[in-house]
Design a protein that fits this description.
165 residues, mainly alpha, 7 helices, elongated
Length: 165
């Protein structure tokens, strides 16, 4: 994404407060859906006495720690830092853009659901893809940031829930 593309996109939201409000609301709602759904899944697995409950905690947990450590060490700048133009979605974090932890989390939670409740998992993965697009449109991530977060979530989910017996 070039500076001009980013500037044009942020200008669109500057000129349309309702569109900015909708973007911010959609970003918050999609984030909360994933984060609220996950504890419900764990509760469901506990009530069902599912022997894979521990796996449903450890796979996302370990993956999240690994991703967070990498992100902290890599510390890539965000679009608004690179271009000096405020994002449409309020954010003032410095660095930690690559990979997107929001998108990773949405995809990791989607993969966890996919293992136990496939239809809900598929729906959460679709919502994760929408969230990824919103994070780029809102100016808080570059496309590579959200793509890496999604891929890492998918790979960790596939590895942790299907490749390892």
């Amino acid at each position: 994404m070039s500076r001009e593309t980013y500037k044009k996109r942020m200008g669109y939201f500057d000129a349309r407060p309702k569109a900015r409000g909708a973007l911010i609301a959609a970003d918050k709602i999609l984030t909360r859906i994933s984060y609220i759904a996950y504890p419900f899944l764990l509760g469901y697995l506990a009530v069902q006495r599912n022997p894979e409950l521990l796996r449903a905690v450890l796979v996302p947990g370990i993956s999240f720690v690994i991703l967070s450590c990498f992100r902290y060490l890599y510390c890539a700048p965000r679009p608004y830092e690179v271009y000096g133009i405020p994002p449409a979605v309020p954010k003032n974090t410095k660095g930690k853009s690559f990979p997107s932890r929001h998108v990773f989390s949405a995809f990791m939670i989607g993969m966890t659901f996919l293992r136990f409740l496939p239809a809900a998992g598929a729906a959460l993965l679709v919502l994760g893809a929408v969230m990824a697009a919103l994070r780029v449109v809102g100016g808080v991530h570059f496309p590579k940031d959200v793509a890496a977060g999604a891929v890492f979530g998918l790979v960790c989910g596939l590895t942790g829930f299907w490749a390892i017996p």
